[in-house]
Amino acid sequence: MKPRIVISFIIFLSAYAPLALLFALRDFDSDARWFHHPRFVLGVVITASLSLLCLWLAISTVKGQFPITVNRVALRSNDLIDYTIPYLVSFFGVDFGKWQDVSALGMFIMLLFLLSVTTQSIFINPALALFGYGLYEVDFTEGTKQKNGVFLAKGELFPGAEYKMERLSRFLYIARQ
């Protein structure tokens, strides 16, 4: 079971919300006190803001139903460094007034989206980190069954502690206190 494609796309877009702010800053004309390409910049910033709002609403509604005990925890949030490469794009000469540059950037972002969904790395997300969520590889006990998976949790998870868990996809869960 994979997360639904629309939800996955919202999660993916939210990961690049800070990139939208970098684009806006690069496109700002301090003399005119406005953007060189306002439609592009405003569209990207509004889309990023809406994706952050949707992500926050979706994550905050998950309560966790199933009690678990954590046996082993390994931090996976260090994988966030992989997101630095696309952010470097903002420092290269992308001309937001040229449809070719914007189309190439869009194709690059779509390729990253497809890779993120198929490799289940979509939840390695800087926006989630900014909301206080960490990503953990966890061995846990649910009832009498030993399982493992990747958990999103606000704050840190500790071995021996009990949490409420909700399944988001085949191997991805969210843990609540």
Explained architecture:
This protein has one domain. The chain has 6 helices and 7 strands, in the order ααββαβαααββββ. It has a 5-stranded mixed β-barrel with strand order 3-4-5-7-6. Strands 1-2 form a two-stranded antiparallel ribbon. α2 runs antiparallel to α3.
Question: What would the keywords be for this entry?
Answer:
43% helix; 6 helices; two-stranded antiparallel sheet; 7 strands; single chain; 177 residues; 25% strand; alpha+beta; 5-stranded mixed β-barrel
Q: Largest sheet, order of strands side by side?
A: 3-4-5-7-6
Give the H and E element order. Answer: HHEEHEHHHEEEE
Question: Could you tell me the strand content as a percent range?
Answer: 25-35%
Total tally of structural domains: 1
Helix content: 40-55%
**Which regions have little confidence, pLDDT < 50, spanning 5+ residues?**
none
Largest sheet: 5 strands, mixed, barrel
Give the oligomer, counting copies of the same chain as homo and different chains as hetero.
single chain
Rg (CA only): 19 Å
Mean pLDDT: 85
Q: Class by helix and strand content?
A: alpha+beta
Number of continuous helical runs: 6
N-to-C span:
25 Å
Shape: elongated
Count of individual beta strands: 7
